[in-house]
Amino acid sequence: MLNAKPVPRSAIDYENISVALSESDSGDIPQSEPTHCEKLDNGQFLSAKECIECIRGDREPCVESIPSGPKNNTYFVINNQANNERQNNNKRRLFHDDCGAWKSIRQKERYFDKETGKEVVKRNGTLCSRKQKNGQLIFEPVGLNEQTDVFVLTHYESKLDRDYSYRRRVTWLSDQREKAIVEYLGIFPAHVTNHGNAKCAGEYIRTDPQVLNTIQQHVQTSRDKPKKIYTQMDKANTQEPDKPRNLKQVQNITCAFNKANGSAGGFNSKANFADEMQQLCTKVVDDDFIKGVFFCQGHSPSVVLYTESQLCDLKRCCGCETPDSIRSVMCVDRTFNLSNLFLTVIVFKNNTVIRKTSHEPPLFIGPMFLHGDGQQETYLQFFSHLAPKIGSTHSTEVRADMKILTGSDEERALVQALQAAFPSAQHLFCMLHCKGNVQQHLTDVGVSIEHRQHIISLLFGSDGATLAGDEATLEARISNVLQYVRFANIDVCNYLTVHVFPKIRSNCELMWNEKWLGQAAWNNNNAESINHQLKLAVDWKPQRLTDLVDHLRDAVNLQYSSLRRALFGQGDLQLVPQFNKHYVPFVKWNGLSQDKQNKLFESFLRDKGPRAAETTVTSSDGQLTVKGHNNVKRKPNQTKRPRAVRTNRKPQ
Prior knowledge:
Blueprint: H1 15-21, E1 38-39, H2 48-56, E2 62-63, E3 74-79, H3 81-88, E4 102-113, E5 119-123, E6 126-133, E7 136-141, E8 150-160, E9 163-173, E10 179-185, H4 209-221, H5 226-236, H6 247-264, H7 273-281, E11 290-294, E12 302-305, H8 308-318, E13 330-335, E14 342-349, E15 353-355, E16 363-371, H9 376-386, E17 405-408, H10 412-421, E18 426-429, H11 431-444, H12 449-460, H13 471-487, H14 493-513, H15 525-537, H16 545-565, E19 573-575, H17 586-590, H18 594-606, E20 616-618, E21 625-627
Parallel strand pairs: 2-3, 13-17, 17-18
Antiparallel strand pairs: 1-3, 3-10, 4-5, 4-8, 5-6, 6-7, 8-9, 9-10, 11-12, 12-16, 13-14, 14-16, 15-19, 20-21
């Protein structure tokens, strides 16, 4: 006999809820009964004969699922096709309702003769009839085949976890599995309680399996965070049963998927750093983004990441043969807090396109480098890998990288590695970082606020040394700084002379010679902006190394998808006038094959635009540049070779 389970003490916490739900002294919930329900008589479940008649007959309408609402001494005939499919896929049956948590009591199978409809029992693997002879119960074999001669009626009974007097029984037949009967015996309890394993208060209602499937599909098909998935589903569904229970439920499903996804690839979801590096190593051979993994004794492993489109675009916009009309500084910066390795990113402006809204050239992500320390030899692995691919050479005669312009902050190891990999390239220092370092040094040596502000103004203000228009003005402004420092008796002359003035001179000389740089003091904000975008992409949370590589790959693919769409006038970018020859009407583009579209895009990536005629010649050692060219001077309108054009005039 089943005894009613006493209401737990914690139910007092829900007294207000119970009062709100209750409108009668009996404590029952006086809501309307669900539709398509039939009543149970005499407080008992249906007999086996009645169950068979309900399933095989058409007397009771069949509903798709168990209706919502209170169910008191009632039963339903439901569509059981979904459970049959689950059973075929080796999954357990599900009979979802809104009653709460159930506790299983028993599952019982009963056998019936297909011809006579009489019940038989199974004893020691043999089907028998049950008879009583001389006051004793005996079992006689009936010679029926279990597979062909009988059908099985299965009862699955359970009791409500918060009130054992309220029970549910599900019944189905083996030869007519498309229907099932769900019976509810007792009065649905008015008091509410939470799940037995819950750590917080609240009524427990089992979530509809369809809702769980929807959450799983969101997790599998998108990279959205649990908070975003929960918000979208809550907004899209107006009915409460169609919504997730809470944010924690979505987080749990996401976590379970991540664990299964990690183990499916052969690596545990709690894979350590060595496991992740091993996984990246296996992808180097056939991956179009992971170009190399370096192992050096005494250093953490490092990874080089880029696509061929990135490399081609970097060479076009920052290479030694790039015309000034599209030339960009090759900015380099290291960012932190993304994973268990640092990330160094090359950033450049793509001057072949502009944004449709701002009409400014977009910032593009170039090759990237994951590394474990900031030593020069570590950076040199990256830059030495890239140098020959973008046209640089270490030859002292050719100087092919003279026009490459790099830029970074004042990180010494990074600057030295760039100078070693690109020996003839010129380097720009970020004046914002330089200004911050000067302020910090003046603070450390105890310079007063008034003196600090004046020195900073003389160096980096609107009339400071960094914005000098010519060499004479620069030297005059540097002299003013030294004069003020000496007059105020501040011991920073040596620091300024060694660490600050050479960088300002170098930047100013480049600004005077390379007119396309503009007149403003150069800073590395482009790289800082890309670093900010990458951190937004990972929601400011450190990532597993393999996940970070996937995020970086997605960011690169997105930018080149936008660049590709600019060829046929779609997306956020548009071609600048000198590259309009690559424009293809949208209708024509759609009619091209994928190979033809790829060839057009590759042709665009190789195009450096119209080149102006060279008006200067530089000596092989790079020491002298003169106006002129190496061509032979010809007569006006001369079309023949110089040797073929001989004078016919006789000497006088």
